[in-house]
Amino acid sequence: MSTGSKATRAYLLLTKHSVTTNFLIAHQTNVLADESKAAQLRHNSNELLMGINVNKHFPWIPDFLESLPYSISRPIMPPGLIDMLELFERVRGELLTLLGSKSEQSPDQKQLGLDRKESVYSSVIKNPILPPAERSLLRLEQEGALLVLAGTESPAKTLNILFYHVLANPPILQKLRDEFVGIPSHATWAQLEQLPYLSAVIEEANRLSFGVTARTARIAHETLTYIPSPHVTMPFPKDSSKSYHLPPGTPISITTLAAHTAESVFPDPFRFDPNRWLGDAGRERRKFNIAFSKGGRRCLGVELARAELYLAAAALLRRFDMELCQTDGSDVAFLHDYQVAMPRIGSKGVRVLARDRKIL
Length: 360
Fold this sequence. Notes:
The chain is mainly α. Helix content is 49%, strand content 9%. The strands form 4 sheets. Strands 1-9-6 form a 3-stranded antiparallel sheet. The longest helix is centred in the middle third of the chain and has 32 residues. The relative contact order is 0.14. Strand 7 and strand 8 form a beta hairpin.
């Protein structure tokens, strides 16, 4: 029996309410069980993102709305902002509960969630290494809300890209399913990471999801020595052995769009091609994938995101036969920049028809 599904919505709610929330505060939510609520949350999140450029240039607007009494500001707030403020309140409530429990416990006693694991918050609150300022209620509330938001959109978008291109390209789907043969039905993340083609598909989906698309600026306080790689074309000469010294205080910036579509590194860059990540050349290319950023500002949740991507992709591809429904390339293309890549205005996301299949 086939059922229709708006996969975009499901991926977002999976990452946000089932994984990230459980990881941070060690209790489970199941928003996906309420389809209408899931749809509304996805719509509101999308509206919030589409207002981000206005907020960036006019930051006083959300500040002004938040300064008003809630009874006055709520009717004129966009739904996405209301959701975000409610998220702050939920995080604050969870923190107050944890702080209250901590005061009643012995120093060595752990607060465990429903899955008998300690939450991120619980371990941070009692960590003596962190200074008190970094364990304050306001700091933890803001960090928690940011982690939930950051841990939602990026892996959900990668899953969106992945499933569209896999379902639109039957040879890729077949190659993945051939690779799954002989793999336990409840394979662990560590086992799935050993599958080269699945890893290549996820790497390519990360590349075309672009992560945070805003220009990331850095200023180093020491002299940097830059040696162009063999992939650099203009404006450097062919002799790439020459080094360049950048004095302290020099602003440097890049976008994931520029990095991930450089044709000298990724030929035919907008084509979904997992094969580009295979073999020695593929391993070399991985250093040019900056969907999770690099260095000291690398995404804190990158390993959680990778675990989500491997486990969710493998489970869904093995459990269901799926086909695209009223969906085309414009529903996953990077056509608008709202700090994340957005498809055509009015897109309903990736939609599929799914039916159960025998797990191999």
